[in-house]
């Protein structure tokens, strides 16, 4: 009876080990795919801004999404659309570039961090430029729940 119990125990533990490995691989594959989708959202964010497509840009956000920026946060699709349209009123040649591959953390949902460069000319043609880091919280529907930009010092003119 002892050897049968030992063999049965070994078999059960082997099955648990194999199942755990398969589950772990499946979960990590899902996480990798989710990270890729989250990066695609941030890349679309830049693309829509550069195409002056405020409707598509706003649709990347959750209905109650928020963008923290000057002079005050923009909340919800209506506020986000007004923010986006305001950029092009003040800076018609505005562009937004991701300067490195974004990083994704997954400790609490998905947070994408990206370095960016923005540039434009004001209405008088004076060139403007700035670098910084963007932080995007992506929800389960792969919508931007929250976006915050952290500016570096302005680039010398």
UniProtKB/TrEMBL annotation:
Under the heading PROSITE patterns, the entry gives:
PROKAR_LIPOPROTEIN
* Ranges for domain SnoaL-like: 42-138
Cross-referenced InterPro entries, in alphabetical order? NTF2-like_dom_sf, SnoaL-like
Among Pfam families, the record links this protein to: SnoaL_2
SUPFAM superfamilies, alphabetically? NTF2-like
Q: Does the keyword Signal apply?
A: yes
Protein name (database record): Integration host factor subunit alpha
Whose protein is this, by species? Acrasis kona
